[in-house]
Design brief:
alpha+beta, Immunoglobulin-like, 7 strands, 30% strand
Length: 156
């Protein structure tokens, strides 16, 4: 299994390194899940200050065979191949060589707080899931005015 070095992201994202630690741990755990063992392969990209993207190679899957669900801080991506759900003997193909996996899969990603799925699209065998970190107004930085020659607010 490949490991990813997220250290360049740590320098650019103060306090957001938790998402990379979670993605690392989930990538390690997913090898034990049914049908995972590194399938399907995926990339995690940072496309802006608060924008992220997960790109999964899902060759052979149609749009209707893929399901992307977010519940709280977990993203679940599943694929149910129509050929694997067909009855035995129905639409059965004889392969001379089969290099495209096309098997059912389930991938789980732990998301950091305030990360939302914006959308998902399928093009050229790649499923792209757009993520955005939306910081609540009360958690955003605010400017504190500095006033010269003012009396202190607290008196003894």
């Amino acid at each position: 299994m490949r490991t990813f070095d997220y250290s360049p992201f740590y320098r650019a994202t103060v306090g957001f390194d938790r998402v990379f630690n979670l993605l690392d741990s989930v990538a390690g755990q997913s090898a034990g899940q049914t049908g995972s063992n590194g399938y399907p392969p995926y990339n995690i990209e940072k496309s802006g200050d608060n924008d992220y993207r997960i790109v999964m190679a899902v060759a052979g899957f149609a749009e209707a065979e893929l399901n992307v669900t977010q519940k709280e801080n977990e993203l679940l991506v599943t694929g149910q191949s129509a050929s694997s759900t067909a009855a035995d003997g129905e639409n059965e193909k004889q392969y001379l060589y089969r290099g495209i996996a096309g098997r059912n899969f389930e991938r789980r990603f732990q998301l950091a707080d305030h990360v939302k799925v914006i959308g998902a699209k399928l093009a050229n065998g790649l499923l792209t899931i757009e993520l955005q970190r939306e910081i609540p107004e009360e958690k955003k930085a605010r400017a504190i005015p500095v006033v010269a020659n003012a009396q202190p607010a607290l008196t003894h």
